Fold this protein.
Amino acid sequence: MTDRTDGYEVVVRPRIGITTTPSSHISATLDLPRPIASLDVGYVDAVVIAGGAPVLLPTVRADRAADTTRDLDALVLSGGGDIEPSRYGAEPAPETDGVDPERDEFELAALAAAEEQGLPVLAVCRGMQLLNVARGGTLIQHVPDVTHTEHRDVEHWNVSANPVTVVADTRLHELCGGTHLTVNSLHHQAVDRVGSGLRITAVDEDDIIEAIEPTDDAPILGVQWHPELIIHEPEHEALFVWLVNQACARSDLLDAALTGRDDQ
């Protein structure tokens, strides 16, 4: 996006909100555990490389989610712990961990607000699972229960080693430039029943769902892998470039609408 001030053209980077993981650490000054909002720097780097301005979003009360997203141009739902199984009608499996009901509640509200406001959304790993649950879908709580293939390959966190097949004539297919893609794999849960208004856009060799997107033209992408950790590969950088470009297009349209309103 560009703006003009006193004859100078100023580049304005779109504001890309990124959800964070609530946790705590021991304060060096107080020697007490203090709450923090943590995020892998890979998300920040990926947004900056794509031309956006990252804005870190701490977990707040769900009734304030719309205020949190109102000044953004796009939203990234980041990875993290498991979603509370009761949100998709299941009892917790023994392997389900890292559940944070307050984060679930905030991010579901933030996603709803983003969709209402027309914000582009990139949902990564847990974020894709949250998108699916928000649309009434369900999750596989522990992938090793349904396949022997390793899906939490932490030794290769920054390597594309897991082949997936991309469905033709989808937004993901257009961005990645083909039906064959390799990704990293750091998850132990996955999408099971796909939510309303969503479609599968990629699967791995075990038919585990690796990507989803809306069946309409809503600017939303969900991927099960972590593209921010393999941003050096063009097909994964393309996901963040798409998000930033969508944010710019939306902002330009809003500017045009407001200008037209002022001229009346």
User: Anything to note?
Assistant: Residues 234-263 form the longest helix (30 residues). The first strand starts at residue 2 and ends at 5.
